[in-house]
């Protein structure tokens, strides 16, 4: 038997045949991230008369393991915008630091940070698109909420491919399947935004979070919710879904 | 030995036979022609003030800012060549941003001063560049509260062991002045400029100057700063703002024929008015301080007149 | 051949702390024909006096559009100005591409006069632009100095224009868009030598500002008036001057 250190941990040649060195080649095609590691699930967002509300739960899963139970996935940008992150948590942290550096740079100008949510969404979607074009995507699906240049409520999504999509209510991840139908029933297409109250929007998101908690195995009952209005951003990060009944399990 | 005509003063990075670098000394002359700038380190914050001589009536009043923010918690004001000052600030911002890239947090003021000192000094080493025609005052507040790491998403488990020392405090005000030679002072009690380790006792932290002044009226300003007994650490930030305004007005006495604008900024502790950020002093407060400064000056004049009469 | 030992390059301080090369570059601006800029509450106006090399040649451009919300007026070396305007156009496009917003006008830090072998730009710029906070006018000098101005004039004989601007400074903020143009043209006229006058050929006017309340979009896009388009503007100037003269006669 070979006791030299370079053979430690290697399958024995006499048992398994010579080691296939092609696995260790440093030349040839390079692989970047091909799957997320620690992930957050759905992000939900609804526009209402005069603002937008976003919600996520506080869970970061490692595969099917509920690994971190205190992860805030709604990130505030300046005083004007919120970004809700689904997908890879470390990529979210990278983007969060990117946003921090932009906020610092914007505040160097005399007028402060003048980037609105729409500008931010344009920027982030380009970051995503650039990264996926390099075959090194940031593994997230995000919602950006705030106001556009005309001062109207703004809600739009961007994903790891750089795809953008905008609607009065949006959901990412499992929520795209479970929450959107509920939101569409509550706020039908023909219903003008003026008729959607802040309270109704918040109530709708709470209802969606509850359904998701029941049905999405990567969700939990602790959540964050952020309401953005002209008065500012009201963010609560340690809420608990009320009235859950899991006795039937 | 005079500098002119010897030939030793025509190029940067050249020593004269008596060991002087004349180009650096000439750069200091450019500083001495600039508007006066002062910085005061108070017990609960730092204040910066600068005298902006109005060179033309056509300038937009209040628009041309001379105090710049670096990251969120540092302010820089410089006297001398304005474009050089802007170059300096631009470098400071790059340093602060690269620090964040490595350490995921704000750069300590002392470390920033250290890096900028090195940068300015490098401009005295080569004949292909000229030294900075500015002396810059760098003021900052290193957070005394425990800051989250950039990109931190949660606080972790609420029970179990942790590595935190209860009640430990760091941070505090910092005030540094960097001259065209690259020279700057740090006090030996402070955290060493190259290491971001916080000193356990915030009252003697992070050091540099208690009060700094540069530009045309620096002599008068320094004399006034010395009267304040800053080393005892009793001056509050609110009083510091008033003193800074008064000192700029005193320093302006020698060039009374020229009009000027006063620009002031401050950085308070995390529980103070600016929450640890570098911001412009609010207009009302500045105007109040200016009124008080004018009153103080008139008072002095009257006293002098009385003496003359006697 | 040199005036003194300290003006050979842009990296030598004089014993008084001056940099002569930069000061000389400043002189290049004074060789260029005059441009004037002024601001009211909603608009910025640039006016320029164009020169032609000879009778049969065309006139040198004085006002260059950077973006729909920003333009520059130049005095000095036109080729240096082209380098700078191309740079500004790129920056502006970059901002529109990445953020979907027009770049705010402002003093941006520039590579300066601190390195050997580089010379300062021999051109002065007036930058006019609007952002959410309103109209802005900046003056850029070869030294790297930038100032935000309420009104400004640079180039040959610009002192006369500056005198006019200083005298009438308090009238600008409340004047209308058209009145502001007239003020600009009158400042420009002040700089002319005896045998010259403003014509459709040698006058350039550029205007950019905030759109009137209730209109679509916030910005009234930059508009350059040249050639025949300047006729109504020059006529307005003549009318205003005529009215002023008449009223003076009444006074006497």
TrEMBL record, chain A:
Primary residence: cytoplasm
Domain of life of the native organism: Eukaryota
Localization: Cytoplasm; Nucleus
Function noted in UniProt: Non-catalytic component of the proteasome.
Family assignment from sequence similarity: Belongs to the peptidase T1B family.
PANTHER family: METALLOPROTEASE TLDD, PROTEASOME SUBUNIT BETA
Protein name: Proteasome subunit beta
Species whose genome carries this gene: Penicillium cosmopolitanum
Upper lineage: Eukaryota, Fungi, Dikarya, Ascomycota, Pezizomycotina
TrEMBL record, chain B:
CDD domains found in the cross-reference section: proteasome_alpha_type_3
Annotated ranges, domain Proteasome alpha-type subunits: 8-30
Feature: compositional bias, Basic and acidic residues: 274-298
Regions of compositional bias (Acidic residues) in chain numbering: 299-310
GO terms (BP aspect): ubiquitin-dependent protein catabolic process
InterPro entries for the chain: Ntn_hydrolases_N, Proteasome_alpha, Proteasome_alpha-type, Proteasome_asu_N, Proteasome_sua/b
Keyword Transferase: no
The keyword Transcription belongs to this UniProt entry's keyword annotation: no
Region of interest (Disordered), residue spans: 269-310
Protein keywords: Proteasome
PANTHER family: PROTEASOME SUBUNIT ALPHA/BETA
Family stated for the protein in its record: Belongs to the peptidase T1A family.
Name of this chain's protein: Proteasome component C1
Organism: Penicillium cosmopolitanum
UniProtKB/TrEMBL annotation, chain C:
InterPro entries: Ntn_hydrolases_N (IPR029055), Proteasome_alpha (IPR050115), Proteasome_alpha-type (IPR023332), Proteasome_alpha1 (IPR035144), Proteasome_asu_N (IPR000426), Proteasome_sua/b (IPR001353)
CDD domains attached to this UniProt entry: proteasome_alpha_type_1 (cd03749)
Pfam families per UniProt: Proteasome, Proteasome_A_N
Subcellular location: Cytoplasm; Nucleus
Keyword Ion transport among record annotations: no
Membrane found in the keyword field: no
Domain of life per record: Eukaryota
Primary subcellular site in the record, as a coarse category: cytoplasm
Gene3D superfamilies named in the record: Glutamine Phosphoribosylpyrophosphate, subunit 1, domain 1
Assembly, per entry: The 26S proteasome consists of a 20S proteasome core and two 19S regulatory subunits.
Family membership noted in the UniProt record: Belongs to the peptidase T1A family.
Name of the molecule in the record: Proteasome subunit alpha type
Organism: Penicillium cosmopolitanum
């Amino acid at each position: 038997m070979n006791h030299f250190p370079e053979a430690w941990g290697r399958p024995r040649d006499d048992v398994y045949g010579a080691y296939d060195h092609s696995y260790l080649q440093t030349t040839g095609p390079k692989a970047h991230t091909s799957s997320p590691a620690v992930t957050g699930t759905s992000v939900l967002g609804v526009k209402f008369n005069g603002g937008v509300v976003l919600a996520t739960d506080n869970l970061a899963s490692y595969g099917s393991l509920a690994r971190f139970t205190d992860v805030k996935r709604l990130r505030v940008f300046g005083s004007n915008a919120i970004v809700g992150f689904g997908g890879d948590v470390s990529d979210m942290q990278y983007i969060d630091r990117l946003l921090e550096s932009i906020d610092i740079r914007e505040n160097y100008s005399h007028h402060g940070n003048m980037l609105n949510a729409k500008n931010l969404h344009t920027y982030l979607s380009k970051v995503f698109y650039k990264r996926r074009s390099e075959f090194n995507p940031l593994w997230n699906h995000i919602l950006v909420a705030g106001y556009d240049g005309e001062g109207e409520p703004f809600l739009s999504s961007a994903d790891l491919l750089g795809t953008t999509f905008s609607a009065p209510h949006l959901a990412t991840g499992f929520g795209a399947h479970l929450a959107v139908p509920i939101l569409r029933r509550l706020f039908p297409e023909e219903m003008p935004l003026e008729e959607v109250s802040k309270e109704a929007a918040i109530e709708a998101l709470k209802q969606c979070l509850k359904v998701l908690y029941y049905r999405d195995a990567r969700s939990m009952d602790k959540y964050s919710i952020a309401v953005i209005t002209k008065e500012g951003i009201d963010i609560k990060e340690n809420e608990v879904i009320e009235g859950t009944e899991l006795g039937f399990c | 030995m005079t500098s002119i005509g010897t030939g030793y003063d025509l190029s940067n990075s050249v020593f004269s036979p008596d060991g002087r670098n004349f180009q650096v000394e000439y750069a200091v002359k450019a500083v001495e022609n600039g508007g006066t700038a002062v910085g005061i380190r108070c017990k609960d914050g730092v204040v910066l003030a600068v005298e902006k001589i109005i060179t033309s009536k056509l300038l937009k009043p209040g628009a041309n800012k001379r105090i710049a923010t670096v990251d969120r918690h540092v302010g820089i004001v410089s006297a001398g060549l304005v474009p050089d000052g802007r170059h300096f600030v631009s470098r400071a911002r790059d340093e602060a941003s690269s620090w964040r890239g490595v350490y995921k947090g704000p750069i300590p003021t002392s470390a920033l001063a250290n890096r900028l000192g090195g940068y300015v000094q490098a401009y005295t080493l080569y004949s292909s560049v000229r030294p900075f025609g500015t002396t810059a005052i760098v003021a900052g507040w290193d957070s005394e509260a425990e800051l989250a790491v950039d990109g931190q998403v949660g606080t972790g488990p609420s029970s179990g062991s942790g590595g935190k020392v209860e009640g430990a405090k760091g941070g505090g005000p910092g005030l540094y002045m960097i001259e065209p030679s690259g020279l700057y002072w740090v006090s030996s009690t402070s955290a060493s400029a190259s290491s971001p380790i916080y000193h356990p006792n915030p009252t003697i932290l992070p050091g540099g100057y208690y009060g700094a002044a540069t530009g045309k009226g620096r002599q008068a300003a320094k004399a006034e700063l010395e009267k304040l007994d800053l080393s005892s650490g009793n001056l509050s930030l609110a009083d510091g703002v008033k003193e800074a305004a008064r000192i700029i007005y005193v320093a302006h006495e020698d060039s009374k024929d020229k009009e000027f604008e006063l620009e002031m900024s401050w950085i308070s502790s995390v529980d103070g008015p600016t929450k640890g950020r570098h911001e412009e002093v609010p207009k009302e407060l500045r105007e109040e301080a200016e009124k008080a400064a004018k009153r103080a000056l008139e008072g002095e004049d009257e006293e002098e007149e009385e003496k003359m009469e006697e | 051949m040199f005036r003194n030992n300290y003006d050979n390059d842009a990296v030598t301080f004089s014993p008084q702390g001056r940099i002569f090369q930069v000061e000389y570059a400043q002189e290049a601006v004074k060789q260029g024909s005059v441009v004037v800029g002024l601001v009211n509450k909603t608009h910025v106006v640039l006016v320029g006096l164009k020169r032609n090399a000879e009778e049969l040649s065309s006139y040198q451009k004085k006002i260059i559009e950077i973006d729909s919300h920003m333009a520059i007026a130049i005095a000095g070396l036109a080729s240096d100005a082209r380098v700078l305007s191309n740079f500004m156009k790129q920056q502006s496009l970059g901002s529109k591409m990445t953020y979907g917003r027009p770049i705010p006008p402002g003093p941006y830090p520039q590579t300066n006069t601190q390195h050997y072998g580089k010379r300062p730009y021999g051109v002065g710029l007036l930058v006019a632009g609007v952002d959410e906070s309103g109209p802005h006018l900046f003056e850029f000098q070869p030294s790297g100095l930038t100032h935000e101005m309420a009104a400004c004039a640079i180039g040959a004989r610009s002192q006369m224009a500056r005198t006019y601007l200083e005298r009438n400074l308090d009238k600008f903020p409340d004047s209308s868009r058209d009145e502001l143009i007239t003020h600009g043209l009158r400042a420009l006229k002040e700089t002319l030598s005896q045998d010259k006058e403003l014509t459709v050929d040698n006058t350039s006017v550029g205007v950019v500002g905030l759109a009137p309340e209730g209109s679509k979009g916030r910005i009234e896009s930059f508009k350059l008036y040249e050639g025949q388009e300047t006729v109504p503007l020059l006529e307005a100037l003549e009318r205003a001057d005529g009215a002023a003269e008449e009223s003076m006669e009444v006074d006497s």
